[in-house]
Amino acid sequence: MSLIQLYIPAEVAQPTVSELGELGLVQFRDLNPDVNAFQRAFVGEIRRFDEMERQLRFFTSQIEKAEIPVRTNLSNAYSSRARSRQELDDLEERLSEHENRLLQMNNSHETMQRRYLELTELKHVLRETSDFFQEAASHQTEIRNSFDEPSAPLLDDLESGPSQEAQGAGLQLGNVTGVIPRNKMQTFERILWRSLRGNLYMNTAEIDEPVIDPSTDVVVEKNVFIIFAHGREILAKIKKIAESLGATLYPIDSSADRRREALLDVVRHIEEFNSVLVNTTQTRRQELMRISENLVAWMIIVKKEKATYHTMNHFNYDINRKCLIAEGWCPTNEINTIQTALRGVTERSGSMVPSILNELKTHKEPPTFHKTNKFTVGFQGIVDAYGMAKYREVNPGLFTIISFPFLFAVMFGDVGHGFIVLLIGMYLCMNERKLAHVDGEMFQMVFGGRYIVLLMGAFSLFTGMMYNDIFSRALPFFQSGWEFHVPDDYPGKTVIVAEPNGHTYPFGIDYAWHGTDNYLLFTNSYKMKMSVILGVIHMSFGICMVYYNAKFYRKPIDIIAGFIPQMIFMQSLFGYLTLMIIYKWSVNWFETDAAGHAVRNSPPSLLNTMIYMFLSPGSVAEGDRLYPGQAFVQGFLVLVAFICIPWMLFLKPYYLKWEHGKARAMGYHQPSEHNVRVSTDSTRSEEAAGAVVADEVEGEEEFEFSEEFIHQVIHTIDFCLSCISNTASYLRLWALSLAHAQLSEVLWGMTLGVAWDMASKYGPNIGAFMTVAMFSVWFFLSIFILVGMEGLSAFLHALRLHWVEFNSKFYIGTGYAFQPFSFATVLSEKDAV
């Protein structure tokens, strides 16, 4: 990575930055960190594009609501070309015109919809009121007023008005009619009954026609109601209660002839409004269709221009030179590409002053850039999730491509399950173009790691063949090296011991072990020792990376006081354990001489050997001896391991102290955080105001021997203890492999095994039915539990082995990612809701 400085003439600043955004190769630094975002040079332009973006979001919501397809097939030239100021002004004016027309049509459409809704509700009210009045008249004997005469009817003559007796008594009969949402009907009735104490007559009817609320465009179910009561105060109270619950009130005349005339008039108005609504809707849809043809192109233009000016706010403006000054990081091998792009912009714009690119020397730590492709991006993501690599340090993502799926497969080894995972990975990889646009956070996470899934399946096939295991069954590919001589009168109660036949099974575990009584004991011992060997190799490889980091950063003390003692300590203890495991496997412990006596003692326990290696160094019991001279070798290795501890603990801090004292004696002092190197034009001192900071010498912490020593104590203790705990942590390879194999065997025995036992007992018909039923259960549980849940568990454990056990040996991970200004990244980001 290189730190570059750009001098961009003001008249071509916008197309130049836009061209750099198309390239996506420069990560610009903010040269105005202390300036408020609202006080930057181009805040006005950004607000302008914010407003245009708001208009486009409004158009998008309206088009989606109208279910109009949006044109997306745009030419690259049209979508990538930088826009001139005149074109942007025309686009702003065009968007404003579209918005004003659309808002006007929306308001007109909403007003007419509200009026149409009122007429529709009034039509239903007028239709239902005739029935309500007739029904109320038939129940007038059941309704009494609350005046002097208890037997006087509340409703005397609804059509002709109250009787003379009622008028003389001062009775004023009235009604309240309207429409209310159906879900509030019960609440409305309860409130009226309790507040008026039953002094009312109410009737309702449902509106069968769908009623659309114009403000929300949601279908609302409503009911027509009419309430008869007497007294102005009671009627006013009823109206307030109805309006508080969202009801719409419509005054209805008590005369049947007038109601009939009003109904005819309402029906005529509805037909007229319906015609106007259709025309308005069609005009609005045509307007939206015209907008939809260019909506995506406009959105791309606005987003690009907004990102361009946002980036330009990071630059400094030199008043004297009339240019913008920018700094940023870019890949060193892409500097020529950037210079070519700058020359192209200058030629197209016709500017007489070219943009200038200078490469600056700096002590700042550059961002980390890992060039990936669709195959490696998933594996690199695993490493980056742990921590971004420091600039130019060893990137473990390359090794993860092999080690991660392999460690996963060690825990997941099964030919059948591995083949299923392989098929899933192949499907995702072969249909990646189609599946790339599928939404869903979980699916996109799996899809992003499709090549990880593919390799996990392939490696699981390999380890499954090594374990000779397919759905807990054996694979008899080659001739077995063991033979069982079963007599004809074998009762099945005694143990038969297999005998070697002279053949050696060429690949993996011999299938003859499957189904034997000691199969679990054999695989337990084998997988446990295999896990220790793989763990020691994996961690030793991680320690080797310390050497390459120290060599690149030119820190020989990290090799002398770090890599060498760490490697010696690791190999003295756990490398020796690995050699003992291999030696124990290679020796025939049951070999006999000509007289039939055992040549060697019984194989010793390696766990006890490692324990007594520390408890009694230099001595080994005769019954626990593994090889001649074992006591001396173990005592020497323990001594070497203990020597490595003070080696790691004291050498580095005292070396740093000596180095610091030597620098002090030579006259070097600690750099101040205020010392900066400024790039200025030496020919004109008055132009120094236009200079920018090219390199800031960051203030380094004063050397403190105590702090360095404490840090080294913590590091030494952590390394020594982690060698033990991390080696034990790799035993998860054995544990999960054993659990996976046993779960597979149990599932087979409880499903298909039961079905086939029933077939032998109850005949082929029942057996066939049970086989089909149990196969469905077995297949579903195999996919859900053994592939899904067990696969996820093995994935997480493999992730932990890489993050904790492997990366902790060498990976610094204190860098920051290279995030260049790129239109591809800007356009891929979804709008925040």
TrEMBL record:
Keywords: Coiled coil, Hydrogen ion transport, Ion transport, Membrane, Transmembrane, Transmembrane helix, Transport. One of its GO terms (molecular function) is proton-transporting ATPase activity, rotational mechanism. One of its GO terms (cellular component) is fungal-type vacuole membrane. Residues 74-115 form a coiled coil. InterPro entries: V-ATPase_116kDa_su (IPR002490), V-type_ATPase_116kDa_su_euka (IPR026028). Essential component of the vacuolar proton pump (V-ATPase), a multimeric enzyme that catalyzes the translocation of protons across the membranes. Required for assembly and activity of the V-ATPase. Belongs to the V-ATPase 116 kDa subunit family. This is V-type proton ATPase subunit a. It comes from Linnemannia elongata AG-77. The lineage of its organism: Eukaryota, Fungi, Fungi incertae sedis, Mucoromycota, Mortierellomycotina.
